[in-house]
Write the structure tokens for this entry.
Amino acid sequence: MRRVTLTQFLIEQQRAGRISPDLRLLIEVVARAVKAISVNVSKGALAGVLGEAGTDNVQGEAQKKLDVIANEILLQANEWGGHLAAMASEEVETVHQIPFDYPKGGFLLLFDPLDGSSNIDVNISVGTIFSVLRNPAGGSEPTEANFLQPGSEQVAAGYAVYGPSTQLVLTVGNGVHGFTLDREMGSFVYTQPFMTIPVDTQEFAINASNARFWEQPVKRYVDEMQAGKGGPLGKDYNMRWVASMVADVHRILTRGGIFMYPMDEKCRAKGGKLRLMYEANPMAMLVEQAGGAASTGRERIMDLKPTELHQRVPVILGSKNEVERVVSYHLEA
Ligand SMILES: O=P(O)(O)OC[C@H]1O[C@](O)(COP(=O)(O)O)[C@@H](O)[C@@H]1O
Ligand SMILES: [Mg+2]
Ligand SMILES: [Mg+2]
């Protein structure tokens, strides 16, 4: 069978008029950075990359060495090339300007360099999530306000999952496409065209240790799922929680399911647990492009007008009928 690489796929997208040469370059550069992160993640203890970095990030969370390494790899790779005007990272407090005297590029890149940090030291899948917006600042240095665009303005979004194999999953607004890293060849091979999420599911993902903090609509929904066949939903459900959003969403894009990190009393003061610009928006774009839905429980995630770069939001995403059910429980409450 003829193998199609990411490069070939992107050239085809460009030829079809779906992406510009600059956006193609941007995605290629992100993919190259992801390969470098994958090498570091897979070496683990052999390269001395496990454990704490001894620093806190802007959110007051302890950074792992790999959080810092992945962040540096993405920043350095993307500074070069001229396709970007600026970057924003979960690990960096303010907008990261391009340190060269290039004309400003047409795009803004946002990322969670290493998602699922608590899983690094126990050798469970982690990932990288990214989002691309247009640069509205023209030739001047983009400000934080220039980044605060709703998710519906994203021109591309994707993630890499560093699991038994490294996969890159991407949308440029024309479906969701998956690629698997061929380590010997050093290239991403197109392995999952048009990934779709079935509208119904019998699998849910939530951190059940927070049950006592949940709001009533989420309690009701989880109780109903746990009641199984004899309950109001009339079917048995299975549960999975990797605690790496990338891995949980990847499972949902592969075989369906619903993922929830809802509002709860523990995270209410912060607005939620997951980050709007680096986690919720890019995953929402991918999930919607695959036929699923993504909501806070009360609003479509991609309709939110961001108020700050590191904003947090509740997230409920995946199989459409299930997400709509949880949303209806929130609206009834
Ligand atoms: O520790 P918990 O409550 O299970 O939370 C897990 C969630 O936190 C996250 O790890 C947050 O992401 P970071 O690791 O990038 O901070 C998500 O990937 C995951 O879904
Ligand atoms: Mg994360
Ligand atoms: Mg992270």
Q: What stands out?
A: The chain has two domains: 6-192, 203-332. The two ends are 53 Å apart (CA to CA).
